[in-house]
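Aim 2 progress update. The chain analyzed this quarter is reproduced below.
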Amino acid sequence: MRYYMTKNSVFYLQREAWDDIKEYKDNYKKVIKEREESRLPFHHESPQFSYRPHLVDYLKKICIEKKLSHCCLHLAVYILDIFMDNHSIIPEKILLVTNVCLLLAAKFEENSMTIPKIAELNRAINNRYQIIDYKALEIVMLKFFSWYIMYPTTAHYVYYYIQTAITEEDVRDKGIGMRSVFYNLHTFVGEYLDQIIENIHYMQCYPPSKLAAGIIAVSRLDIGLSCWTEQLENITDYKREEIETQIFVLRTKYPFINCPKCKIPN
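Predicted structure tokens:
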């Protein structure tokens, strides 16, 4: 099971600060919400859209092999989606773009010891490119994003919300230890995080914060708990009725009812 977020992440919030400093918590919620609202939108205009399932599977495989976090994976997929959405990439270069997306995400999300080396990523695709190709494309992509890729993803929000996902009442009702309940919750959360990056509509149609709230809710249901609590409402700023759609699409595995921007038949 991969970690959700490393301490190196720009969105990491120390538990001590979360518990003890209300003002810091409020500021954190404000900042991460502003960053969410500044995310670049998807338009489903990527000429490479048909490659996406294979590229996401490849990114998952590398992240598992290199023990990279869910947050790293989700940020890499977001960068890839946005870049492909705004560029026409020749098929021969698509794996180079994918590797550079992962490299950029890892530099923001992982510590220096776990960031994959260019040679390692290139070896995973049979050394198709030159090292200089990676460095040149990295600059091109950073310029496209105006040197700013610190966008919160659903995985970032899940990690933030999960701190209050289990209460003492939950443990008492289940009759088992906190560790067991929390481990079971983590298992389902990880499965949903993998599910939502497989179909772009999850990321296209719903804000990351609301989708993360839905993941916590359905994961609680999956382990036999009520889907929502007062603590979760306080940390997410979402009421139970506000995440009904997210709960429905996650439980039915049907990510959208109508996507107004998608040119592919529903």
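Residues 35 and 41 are 13 Å apart (CA to CA). The radius of gyration is 19 Å. These observations will guide the mutagenesis experiments scheduled for the next reporting period.
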